[in-house]
Amino acid sequence: MRFETTTIKDIAKALGFSTSTVSRALRGGYEISEETKRIVLEYAEKINYRPNPIALSLKERRSHSIGVVVCEIANNFFSQAINGIESIAYNSGYHVIITQSNENHEREVLNVEHLASRSVDGLLISLSSESNDISYLKSLHEKGLPIVFFDRVSEEINTHKVIANNFQGGFEATEFLIKSGYTKIGHFTNAAHLSITRERLEGYKAALEKHQIPFNESYVKYCSYSGLIQDEIDAAVKDILKLKERPDALFIAQDKISTSTLLALRKLDLEYGCKIGISGFTNSNVAPLFSPPITVVRQPAFEMGQQATQLLIKLIESKHPVTEFETKTLNTQLITHSSTNRKL
Amino acid sequence: MRFETTTIKDIAKALGFSTSTVSRALRGGYEISEETKRIVLEYAEKINYRPNPIALSLKERRSHSIGVVVCEIANNFFSQAINGIESIAYNSGYHVIITQSNENHEREVLNVEHLASRSVDGLLISLSSESNDISYLKSLHEKGLPIVFFDRVSEEINTHKVIANNFQGGFEATEFLIKSGYTKIGHFTNAAHLSITRERLEGYKAALEKHQIPFNESYVKYCSYSGLIQDEIDAAVKDILKLKERPDALFIAQDKISTSTLLALRKLDLEYGCKIGISGFTNSNVAPLFSPPITVVRQPAFEMGQQATQLLIKLIESKHPVTEFETKTLNTQLITHSSTNRKL
DNA sequence: TTGAAAGCGCTAACAA
DNA sequence: TTGTTAGCGCTTTCAA
Fold first, then answer.
1. Most A CBs within 10 Å: which of B282, B286, B335, B339, as the mutation test of the A interface?
2. CB of A9 under 7 A from strand C?
3. What's the CA–C1' distance between B145 and D13, in Å?
4. Are residues B95 and B207 in the same domain?
5. Which pLDDT tens digit goes with each residue over B4-16?
6. How far apart are CA B124 and CA B83, in angstroms?
7. B138 shares its domain with B159
8. What are A259-316's pLDDT values in tens digits?
9. Residues A224 and A193 in one domain
10. Is residue A58 part of a domain?
11. What are the HTH lacI-type domain coordinates in residue numbering (chains A, B) (predicted)?
């Protein structure tokens, strides 16, 4: 035993009560005399007694904590979402355990299983880009683990979901470029099977269509590692530079891909980099400092984290099995940068 | 009971053994027949048995997990350090529980106490800017909780520490500005009592002294919220703009303060912002994109996380009480930006 | 080689 | 109102 923690037994012994009396006094039991309660509470206070949450978890099969699985903490969107998650969780008496998958399916599975076996009361998850098969999650969900998806969701599991209005974001970002005079608009995005990829691509296509610009498949680059690996982005940029009809603008559908692309452009072809119009999803706070400047689609990350957590806690604390689920869609915000305003 | 987890009891019942036999078989016991062991292991494999880590923790007083307390996950330095921590921890069979204090002392205490009561086997911590009094940590440490400090350390507790060479970083960043022709160099930094603040300030002073530039107290701004609150930085910038002798350059001693200052300059006085020379601590990957460009002091965050974790695990797994402690100091890296090279 | 039983810290059904 | 006891899942003496 590493720590000499005081237990309920110590209190009982010191005060001459039974452990159950002490237990009842501590948890504000009703079936106990005011006097005893007072004595126990005072003593507990004096010796700074803290109940052992592990013992509680073992007993109650719950831990008053929720698990979070994101791809990457260093991503602005996710770190802001985590802040939203914590803001609600703490106020509701839950602790938050954060894990990251690094866009790796195996790591994701390990994290989820660890969280589940540690008796988290529920799970908030945004899927890794490698996660196509989520049967492992499905079986956990069927066993009764409350799960709420956010950002990268899956159709395969029927539960609450919180997403940004990805179609709108893609549409507005693309249309903004079009209205600024660009016509050859490339699209860098995530792995093809992700929900966010599909939705943002739809928005992109819709904007093109509205303005009678034909969709060009060779303008779309799916980056499986979501910008985590700079080489992948460098290659994508090189690829579009090789096209006979180089894009004159890019709509980039993800936080890390946006910044990685800017870095790649800077390295590869400065002249081109300065001329190209860029709009992209990012929650970076420093985007206004970027040169070349970009127009930004910002997701309400903090609010998404909050709402997902509220839904999860509702699920956890529900007395009856929940069968009605909702998908909350929050609007994105287009922050235009004056210098992107017009094609140079 | 939410989950229908299979327990050792279920296996025992199904196989007609006692729970203790199953337990022994599962943990590769010696005092058990090969035959029984095989049967149990096969069956456990078949039903995908997973031991309940909570029960194990309760029994063994350890959890094979380490707790991490940082100020803010969204800070580049910390998210990179966390990646380093995880890389070592996972390979050594430890899980990592991340918490953030938001530079708030009370939150820090809550996090640490929660982690401790959850039986983390050890703690990695970088102190919040509000944490002057760390007696709460001290008493935990005296009770036997292994602690390793990184980045923001304290003298008050005698244990392993991992820091960057903050003096060097401060010296080089300041001298670089001097060599670029700047002479009126301001200094934005963290709360005064932090170890990193003192060390970086010393580096700054040493560089000034080496080049016979007098130290000017009114050029130093201590930002207690470490850049978390933009208003504080805006005010600091306004303050130095009011000085009769405006600084012509700034050495900024922290990640978030660096970016917040750039944002403040951009908002407040564009002309001044473009002329001023800036060098600052930051681990941002997108610093090359910044305009105005800045010269960067980069800390080896990933390696710091790794080394701190190695030290912690050594502490945790040591058979004998450890009495010799070391402080590892890792060198910073100065990344000069051509445009900062010369005073305009 | 195996099983019975105690115990980690706590709660709660049941008895008194 | 209070105490006794069993049990959450697991390990580990002690006995057989």
1. B286
2. yes
3. 28
4. no
5. 678 999 999 999 9
6. 13
7. yes
8. 999 999 988 877 777 789 999 999 999 999 998 889 999 999 999 999 999 999 999 9
9. yes
10. no
11. 6-60
pLDDT tens digit sequence for B48-72:
898 998 999 998 888 889 999 999 9
Rounded Cα–Cα distance for residues A179 and A173 (Å): 10
Nearest-by-CA chain B residue for A265: B289
How many angstroms separate the CA of residue A103 from the nearest CA in chain B? 13
CA distance A64 to A320: 19
pLDDT at A343: 46
Q: At which residue do the structure tokens 């004998």 appear? A: B320
What residue has token string 């036997």? B144
Q: Summarize the confidence of residues B316-342 as an average pLDDT.
A: 84
Strand D at less than 7 A from CB of A16 = yes
Whether A158 and A306 share a structural domain: yes
Whether residue A56 lies inside any domain: the answer is no
Q: Residue B226 maps to which CATH number? A: 3.40.50.2300
> Which of A52, A80, A285 is facing B117, going by the closest CB pair?
A52
Structural domain range at position A44: 8-51
Strand locations in chain A (E): 65-70, 95-100, 122-125, 147-150, 161-164, 185-189, 220-222, 249-252, 277-281, 295-298, 327-330, 333-335
Q: Count of domains in chain B?
A: 3
First-to-last CA distance in chain A? 70
**pLDDT of A344:** 43
pTM score? 0.90
Please report, for residues B112, B186, B260, B334, the alpha-carbon distance to residue B166 in angstroms, rounded to integers and kept in the order given: 26, 17, 20, 12
Check if residue A12 sits with its Cβ under 7 angstroms from strand C. no
Q: CB A290 to CB B285 under 8 A?
A: no
Are B87 and B46 in a shared domain? no
Say whether both B243 and B180 belong to one domain: yes
Q: Is the pLDDT of residue B344 over 60?
A: no
CA distance B344 to B341: 9
- A259 and A323 share a domain? no
Across all strands, nucleotide nearest B58 (CA–C1'): C8
Q: Which residues of chain B make contact with A289, given a CB cutoff of 8 A?
A: 259, 262-263, 266, 289-291
Q: CA B306, B309, B315, B317 torsion: positive or negative?
A: negative
* pLDDT tens digits along A200-253: 999 999 999 999 999 999 999 999 888 888 999 999 999 998 999 999 999 999
Q: How far apart are CA A118 and CA B56, in angstroms?
A: 11
Mean pLDDT of B277-306: 94
- Structure-block tokens of residue B161: 């520490």
Q: Which amino acid is at A172?
A: E
Whether the predicted pLDDT of B342 surpasses 70: no
The secondary structure of residue A214, as a DSSP letter, is P
Q: How far is CA B337 from the centre of its chain?
A: 26
Q: Which of B3, B82, B144 sits opposite A2 (nearest CB)?
A: B144
A228: which DSSP letter?
S
Residue A3 covered by a domain: no
Interface touch A289/B290, C-beta < 8 Å = yes
Of the candidates B118, B259, B289, the beta carbon closest to that of A263 is on: B289
Final residue in a domain of this structure, among A31, A51, A71: A51
Write down the mean pLDDT value for chain B: 91
Residue corresponding to tokens 């996972």 = B90
Question: Would B58 be classed as within a structural domain?
Answer: no
Mean pLDDT of A53-79: 91
B187 within 8 A of B206, measured Cβ to Cβ: no
Q: What is the mean pLDDT of chain A?
A: 91
Rounded to whole angstroms, the distance from the CA of residue B6 to the C1' of nucleotide C6 is 23
Q: How far is A166 from chain B (nearest CA, A)?
A: 23
Residues in chain B: 344
Band (pLDDT 50/70/90 cuts) for residue B2 is low
